[in-house]
Amino acid sequence: MSHLQIFPASGSHPLPSFASNDPALIAAELAERGIGFERWPAHQELPAGASADAVLTAYAAEIARVQSRGTYPTVDAIRMTPDHPDRAALRQKFLAEHTHAEDEVRFFVEGEGLFCLHIDNEVLQVLCTADDWISVPAGTKHWFDMGSAPTFCAIRFFDNPEGWVAQFTGDAIAERYPLLA
Ligand SMILES: [Fe+2]
Q1: pLDDT averaged over the chain?
Q2: Is residue 180 part of a domain?
Q3: Is residue 181 part of a domain?
Q4: What pLDDT was estimated at residue 48?
Q5: What pTM was computed for the model?
Q6: How far apart are the CA of 11 and the centre of ligand 1, in A?
Q7: Above 70 in pLDDT, residue 139?
Q8: Which domain holds residue 97?
Q9: Cα 142 to averaged position of ligand 1 atoms, centre (Å)
């Protein structure tokens, strides 16, 4: 189930001032801060473990709707599994606060991932689960946790996949906030 917690961005043991599982409330809180969040209807015909091509075909209409806004000419579908040999290194890669010159836009077909957004004096932790679409604008300070047993399939939208490189801020803020198990 999708979940949002909002914390202060300061303090050694920050406590959440807001928490909700309600997709409409989550979307509203995120929209106020410039973050896109939508729930897309599940494609029941898509079997668990479907190939990237099958995922992109199943969601062709939704992908076209996003692309009709004139952005993200490139899409792909990636899958992480709990037995992935590089799971620890891949998890570690995005656990520190960073930004990108490109928007980070994802749709979760299966599984989950935790987006942590540092916006002004707040940290928003968005647990994205199946059927969640999130759009994080370029330049937003954030980190991402896939957990120790990562399980997800996600569609990624890119302006330019080659330019999608993390710029680390050097701020250890991520260490003060909860992560996935
Ligand atoms: Fe990122």
Answers
A1: 95
A2: no
A3: no
A4: 85
A5: 0.95
A6: 24
A7: yes
A8: 3-170
A9: 6
In-domain check, residue 177: no
Q: Ligand 1 mean position to 90 CA, how many Å?
A: 12
Domain count across the chain: 1
CATH for 80: 2.60.120.10
Ligand 1 centroid from CA 43, angstroms: 27
Determine the distance separating the centroid of ligand 1 and the alpha carbon of 45, expressed in angstroms: 30
Confidence (pLDDT) at 60 = 95
CA–CA distance, 117 with 47 (Å, rounded to integer)? 31
Q: Is the dihedral of CA 26, 32, 34, 38 positive or negative?
A: positive
pLDDT-derived band at 141 (thresholds 50, 70, 90) equals: very high
Distance of CA 88 from the midpoint of ligand 1 (Å): 16
Report the separation in Å between the CA atom of 61 and the middle of ligand 1, taken as the mean of its atom positions: 26
Residue 27 within a domain: yes
